[in-house]
Amino acid sequence: MLLSKFPNSFLELKDDILDFVYPQHCAICKKHLNREEKDICEACWNSLVTLPDSFCPYCISFYEPGDTKCGFCQSVGKIIEDHKITLVRSLGRFDDYYKELIHRFKYGKKIPLGKRLAQRLGETINDDSNFSECHFLIPVPLHKSRYRERGFNQSEIIAEEISKIAHVAVLKNALKRKKNTKDQTNLSPQQREENVSGAFVVTQPEMVNGKRIILVDDVITTGATMNECAQMLKQAGAEKIIGMTIAVVTD
After folding, report:
1. Which of 39, 125, 171, 204 is the most buried (most CB within 10 A)?
2. Rounded to an integer, what distance in angstroms lies between the CA atom of residue 19 and that of residue 110?
3. Which domains does the chain have, with CATH numbers?
4. pLDDT at 8
């Protein structure tokens, strides 16, 4: 009972013990880590490439500072009003480096590494009014069976760390995943949309009605999952939805 109540603390303690018994190597350069370093050496951490600004989740074109609509989508005749998510801010592109770090966080249960990535992501929005004017951070939820299997929701951990820096409250239970969907990794864009269709429900519509929401996930690929979440939040009356992720797949 105690361990299930505090899963993150237990996982972090287990990591500390394993790191002491079995010295670790950097996830990127494989160099032996010193006692102050965890998962990634300071040189590799400082060399991680971060994205300069927010982008359109539909065409992945970067916005100019202050933009709230995608100029490219407008120029090719897309109906901007149909865009459920206004913009997305990601820490980096889903290259080999970010892929390895996120994999260690998500599947290797390296909670401190995930928190560190989330803190850096939070720092990117300090001076961005698009984010500071929002009312809540809402993490993309896991199905209860997936949560039991993993022991934590990576999106929730990311949202909690961003909250500490951006001073925007986390609303954890307003959005629920009611369908245990397949893993999206090897699905086509159309299959991804079909896979998550009807997967989410807003359980506290009174909390999101009229509010500006930051939707948080670990990675955005085609945007199918975040779009489905955003659609449900919009139907519940949310005024504006913007996204935040650790990485974005651009290929």
Report:
1. 39
2. 11
3. 51-94+126-248 (3.40.50)
4. 62
